UniProtKB/TrEMBL annotation, chains A, B:
<feature type="binding site">
    <location>
        <position position="284"/>
    </location>
    <ligand>
        <name>Zn(2+)</name>
    </ligand>
</feature>
<dbReference type="GO" id="GO:0046872">
    <property type="term" value="F:metal ion binding"/>
</dbReference>
<feature type="active site" description="Proton donor/acceptor">
    <location>
        <position position="255"/>
    </location>
</feature>
<keyword id="KW-0482">Metalloprotease</keyword>
<dbReference type="GO" id="GO:0006508">
    <property type="term" value="P:proteolysis"/>
</dbReference>
<keyword id="KW-0378">Hydrolase</keyword>
<keyword id="KW-0479">Metal-binding</keyword>
<comment type="similarity">
    <text>Belongs to the peptidase M32 family.</text>
</comment>
<feature type="binding site">
    <location>
        <position position="258"/>
    </location>
    <ligand>
        <name>Zn(2+)</name>
    </ligand>
</feature>
<feature type="binding site">
    <location>
        <position position="254"/>
    </location>
    <ligand>
        <name>Zn(2+)</name>
    </ligand>
</feature>
<dbReference type="GO" id="GO:0004181">
    <property type="term" value="F:metallocarboxypeptidase activity"/>
</dbReference>
<keyword id="KW-0121">Carboxypeptidase</keyword>
<comment type="function">
    <text>Broad specificity carboxypetidase that releases amino acids sequentially from the C-terminus, including neutral, aromatic, polar and basic residues.</text>
</comment>
<keyword id="KW-0645">Protease</keyword>
<protein>
    <recommendedName>
        <fullName>Metal-dependent carboxypeptidase</fullName>
        <ecNumber>3.4.17.19</ecNumber>
    </recommendedName>
</protein>
<dbReference type="InterPro" id="IPR001333">
    <property type="entry name" value="Peptidase_M32_Taq"/>
</dbReference>
<dbReference type="Pfam" id="PF02074">
    <property type="entry name" value="Peptidase_M32"/>
</dbReference>
Amino acid sequence: MTAYDDLLAFTRDTIALGEIAGRLGWDQETVMPRGAADQRGEEMAAIESVLHARRTDPRVGEWLEVAEAPDEVGAAQLREIRRVYDRTMKIPAALATKLAQVTSVAQGKWAAARAAEDIAAFLPVLQEVVALKREEGAALAAGGSLYDAMLEDYEPGTSAAEIAATFDAMRPRLVALRSAILEKPAPAALSGYYPAETQMRMTRELAEVFGYDMTRGRIDKAVHPFSSGSGNDVRITTRTDEDDPFNCVYSTIHETGHACYEQNVDLAYLLTPLGRGVSMGVHESQSRIFENQLGRSRAFTGWLFDRMGEAYGDIGVPDADAFYAAANRVHPGFIRTEADEVQYNLHIMLRFDLERALMANDLQVGDLEAAWNDRFLADFGTAVDKPSNGVLQDVHWSVGLFGYFPTYALGNVYAGCLHAALRQALPDLDAQLAVGDTSGATGWLKDNLQRHGARYAPREVITRATGAAPTEAPLMEYLESKFGALYGL
Amino acid sequence: MTAYDDLLAFTRDTIALGEIAGRLGWDQETVMPRGAADQRGEEMAAIESVLHARRTDPRVGEWLEVAEAPDEVGAAQLREIRRVYDRTMKIPAALATKLAQVTSVAQGKWAAARAAEDIAAFLPVLQEVVALKREEGAALAAGGSLYDAMLEDYEPGTSAAEIAATFDAMRPRLVALRSAILEKPAPAALSGYYPAETQMRMTRELAEVFGYDMTRGRIDKAVHPFSSGSGNDVRITTRTDEDDPFNCVYSTIHETGHACYEQNVDLAYLLTPLGRGVSMGVHESQSRIFENQLGRSRAFTGWLFDRMGEAYGDIGVPDADAFYAAANRVHPGFIRTEADEVQYNLHIMLRFDLERALMANDLQVGDLEAAWNDRFLADFGTAVDKPSNGVLQDVHWSVGLFGYFPTYALGNVYAGCLHAALRQALPDLDAQLAVGDTSGATGWLKDNLQRHGARYAPREVITRATGAAPTEAPLMEYLESKFGALYGL
């Protein structure tokens, strides 16, 4: 056994234990008896403590000093192990403990403050979180940019400056597109009653239509849709709203994108650092291209209109064109998670700018709500009416997730690039989608991106798949063209 | 922090990790995608390896040397920690590894041999298992009785001699009772069609009727019924046979007995060595008294007859007396797991005597089948027709479970003692059961036995609950009286 072998074997067990912790998380959100919550908290703490001890085990550092990669894949394994280990070791244990404690409290206070529309009840603990995250960022950055150091957790190798340049190019075009659309009459929405059981049957069908392997996964209901696991055990959750079938349909297709990425990673990487999606942004690109560029395309919605007619009878729109318009409605709203393709990125840019300012100490927590509301009015043309529709709507900051938000919009940018390349590679894509056949598209994504797992860095894997470095141009052209045609702009 | 505190905190985390491993086992048998089996094997190995390292951690030995119990409960905690630690440390690591490997192979060979009715294909690996178990027993016994040392794993503080004396007193009476019953005409069985969905609805109702707390548990289907977990997360599985509703009904009540024992342990003991049922035998006493002395009583079956009539319509028997007889049919058969109250213990005694002889080297593996078939003919009056109906029917020996079988019959003996005491304490028990109210009985078991968890040794907790040391007398009187009346002996 070489040092490399020892290190990989040790890491493999750590990853397997991490998968177990993830499986417990799934259990908690789907099947766990509600009376088990406190006990589960203690069980989770026990396995997290084992994981932390392994991730900071000095042997990992010793192995990394002498390990020699046997080949290029091995070099990529070492790169990933080193990146995570170096980062973990930079954070003082006391700070990590304090952050865990404070964010746990902060999450509870955030939920209570949101329910009570009482921002003052949340700001003191948010102030603590921000201070601790700045401390953590300073430890990680070692003199460099705090925020860039935070981005490394979610989108390795991407700087705030690059993201800002991309977002700055998108923002005026999105604001203009949004305004132009909202001056036009809104298309009709669906109407009718959609039994939950029928929706769950269609959920399973849709997941398989998009290439999800049910023999290596399962679908359950949960309050918030998510996908979890890797390799041969990747599970999806979804939810149903008996008045709004699109909620379930597009949550399912979105999570199927995440899940297929995990299922399609080369099984040679199973339970190794390369056996996962490479970053939050690339992950989101897969869920978004499944959901939007494929799932909300005119071609695919034509097939879906027929299937929903068979399943539910009259759904309140007369034909496939009206159905396509309903699936792509742009409507005013305060909430990020309910936003359409056009407005979603504006929500992200707002958060990105505010959280960068917080981390740079250019914005104080006490001024956050005013900054949020000013920016929202500027970009969306509406005054925020209450904190739950504004600065209190997302859990992220309460749990210390700074640097995470921009990856949602980066995912859209990457999806735009991949979609353009996919259209080049498959000239008859629409003919396939029009009969509910996504295999050409999902197969292309598997072959050109998903199978690599974390083998290549985020921007590199997009570049390899598309033949060019990612830019916002394809996404913006897609949005302006699609919604221009839909709304007759 | 004293050594006692450190030891308890460490043990608490180990137990929490053990609960996690148990939860993965539940997941595997109920909801895991079938394609995940190999990956799950690797994940389980990773957590088992963590558990093994903790169970053999030299710090446990150091703490045990100096720890002082703060009170009697603390003394019981130390007793349990010491018992498990001493036992674990007596087994050489190489032997433990070898046993794990060989039993894993043996289980596969057993399943194949049983399917092929080919005992010769199983005997060589069984020979290996027996040799390794004898080696393990010698390490554990340190000069004492091998088999007694093995019993310690399942029924601490109980000797083979005590068990043999009990069984020897029962065997002739059971053989005589069985023969007398089988000379009488068999009562009618149920007939009809029992939809699986209705059975699952009734399963949930029955579990709650017997005191199972659904807010701290759940019920799912699995191939083999089991209960798993402790404290506030205790889950049951059951199965349905659409021609035979009793299979599901009595599996459910049986597992509810196990599950209620775990749910009802004093929550002050949660995730500590005392926070579990104390032994296999005492555990089985709870499942058996729920299933048989309560669930198959004339009083309770009267209520159940009405409920099943409401749920299924005509079930093929005219009245509650005929239903009671159907629920207590004694019929010839080869298979332990399908045996009734009268014959079940005879199956166990056969295995107890044979496995003791194997461990004492008084019986060779090559002679095992003949010994089994001779004994079966003597006690059951029938010649075994094929290995799957004889020596190949149970998985236990292939996976190295020697010393486990007798706890099933000990459970029946303990259930007999508890039932007699319960009848003394609750003179109007039958009136309660006749209206489907088990709360008097299950409350008595909770207060007098279940809440103690592993606080008292097995025989001690039975003695405390009943006021006398356990003997076979109450069980035998119950069986002879009940079946004497049923069959007009």
